[in-house]
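seq as requested:
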Amino acid sequence: MSAGIVDVALTREMATGAPRPSARVPEARVRASDFLALTKPRVVVMVLVTTVVGYYLGSAGAADYLRLLHTLIGTALAAAGTLALNQFLEREVDALMERTRLRPLPDGRLQPIEALVFGALITTAGVLYLALVVGLLCGLVTAATVALYLFAYTPLKLKTPLCVVVGAIPGALPPVTGWVAAQGELGVGAWVLFGILFLWQLPHTLAIARLYREDYARAGIRLLPVVDPDGTSTERQIVTGCSALLAVGLLPTLIGLTGPVYFFGALSLGVGFLGCGMAQAVSRTVPAARRLLFASLLYLPTLLALMAFDKI
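struct tokens:
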């Protein structure tokens, strides 16, 4: 809604003593949209997808869909709240970057206290919901995810390139939450899923950082491509991550979670992803980094779909 429409509405309200209903409804919709933007819905959807896969793979026999629904509700609330709190904590940094300066907080459409209260309430609600309705261990895993993301990964982004490694830990815990919700305990399968998500995030995040290196540098975010001008360490980490992911990606079949269809599919995906990583290491160009990012976005959902399809 433009500033001109707001000014007209305020003028009408002052003249008549009553606001126009049609002016308040669009404003409420805009504010609701801004609060929704704080939660990064696309990221929440990805979190829920990995949680579902973890739950499905951890289920023995027919899945308890009501329990899965409870798990998704709590996880969605906790993830959305955590992402809102992250935007609260990073509002000043976001204001310095072209790709984030128009978010609701740096753009001034929402006040920091609004984001803080909103994020804290739904994060707490999500963790408590999981602990009380699904299980205490499930709530504890999610609480650890929240704490690591907000109080370890977020501040470390301004201090050390190791933030990517630290940030990959909470990013890899949602399928563990799903597994624990299904089984009531941790197991080898949960840690294999954790390893896959953990390793996938390294080349994925470094590809993004390579594409937006100047933007991150402007904001003082010390991702590896920012502090590694010639790209040697960055490309080595990308290739190492892709290589490790190729090996760990085969483990679901080797531990008896999935069958041969998954194994050969994961092998093909891993080889292709590694090829993109090696191409980036050789050329060190923006187009190569963009291809690597696209490959990462193709790799993970395809791998998860194969897991679900070929579960034993």
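Residues 155 and 227 are 17 Å apart (CA to CA).
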